[in-house]
Amino acid sequence: MKKILLFASGAGSNVENIIQYFKNKEDVAIAGVFSNNPEAKVLEKAQAHQVPTTVFNRAELNEGAVLQQIRKIQPDLIVLAGFLWKMPEAIVHEYPNQIINIHPALLPKYGGKGMYGMKVHQAILDNNEKETGITIHYVNEQYDEGEFILQQAVNIEDCKSPEEIAAKVHQLEHIHFPQIIEKLLITNP
Ligand code: GAR
Questions:
Q1: Does ligand 1 come within 6 angstroms of the Cβ of 104?
Q2: What domain range is 101 assigned to?
Q3: What's the CA-to-centroid distance between 141 and ligand 1, angstroms?
Q4: CA angle 46-12-22, nearest 5°?
Q5: Which CATH number does the domain housing residue 178 bear?
């Protein structure tokens, strides 16, 4: 049995999609959803699917308490699905090539600190970009700089608002993210 541990800060459409994708797969379990945001909608979504949730603050993340909880779970893969804080080095070092993130743009464009969610889509609209996309990548010590696993582009010439761009990006995320997670779990025994 392979175990996935999810980290998320917000609405949780990706988390819900991943939970649903693996629901009937007997060899994969969603071990939990960890969030820095006690108000995050993702917590209700996880609980509705009987997935255990944990909320932590910045000190617990950066000073070892979260790492201790991760050790107890022993996940095969840690998945950042709309997680907006930086993963501390201690966690990154303990799980090399076992932490992945999804970014709602074609990195290295529109990445880095402060570039998340609607801010990314607004910047892309402001710059009249013709296309955007998603990047799934390994997590290292720097924001959005780990090795790429997958990029997929989408045309956005018809989009007139950041919300329209977000909808197209979410569609791509929901198709590809669970598939990549599954592939990584199978190929990294
Ligand atoms: C997703 O689009 C994800 O790519 C983005 O946050 C959104 C979360 O949506 N992540 C980042 O911006 C990370 N820098 P969701 O809560 O509905 O899954």
A1: yes
A2: 2-187
A3: 19
A4: 55
A5: 3.40.50.170
